[in-house]
Amino acid sequence: MSDENGTPETPSGPRPEPLRFFGTTWVDHDHGYAARRVAVAVGSLAAAVGSCLVLRFAYEGLAIAETGSFVTLLVVVMFAVCSALAFRHTLEGYTKRHDPDRQSSLRGLLAIGFVGSLLAYFFRSLLEAPGEKLHREEYEHARTQHTRRTSRRTGNPSKKRRRV
């Protein structure tokens, strides 16, 4: 607390970026972090199963419409390929930042392959909060940079080397 006005002091330096469903609990793994991970894993798996049921209804609709085996095969292959690509892209997104232009150009593919994205979210939540590794690396790097900058400013001026 600040002595003068009773307001809490804001810590100097970088602040952790909140993650969806986790906020900033990923930093210290506190305030129900483990329960949130379990809930996110169960929820994403349930959403993937529900999505597969919806896709099954769409497949049955194609069969009822008698569109032919070529169209049915084309639709099944399209969803399988898009889901595989979305799975890989989503899993990569948890370890490195994507180019925003590339991300926007893949928006349609990721929408079609939503089952792959949900499964990637499920598998990643078994290990950690999705995106935690990337955010932790960036946060630790920012904290290190901040510490270096502040230690240079607050050092004892008499101990600094003089340039000749």
Estimated helix fraction: 55-70%
Query: What are the low-pLDDT stretches, counting only 5+ consecutive residues below 50?
Result: none
Structure summary, number of beta strands? 0
Q: What is the alpha-carbon Rg in Å?
A: 24 Å
Q: Strand share of the residues? A: under 5%
Global shape: elongated
Distance between the termini: 45 Å
The secondary-structure class comes to mainly alpha
Secondary structure elements and pairings:
Layout: H1 33-65, H2 69-93, H3 100-105, H4 107-112, H5 114-127, H6 132-154
Helix pairs in contact: 1-5, 2-5
Notes on the structure:
- The model has no long low-confidence stretch (mean pLDDT 86).
- This protein has a domain of 112 residues.
- It is 65% helix and 0% strand.
- It is mostly helical and 164 residues long.
- The protein contains 6 helices and no strands.
Describe the structure using short key phrases:
164 residues; 6 helices; mainly alpha
Short characterization:
This protein is 65% helix and 0% strand. By secondary structure, it is an all-alpha fold. It is elongated.
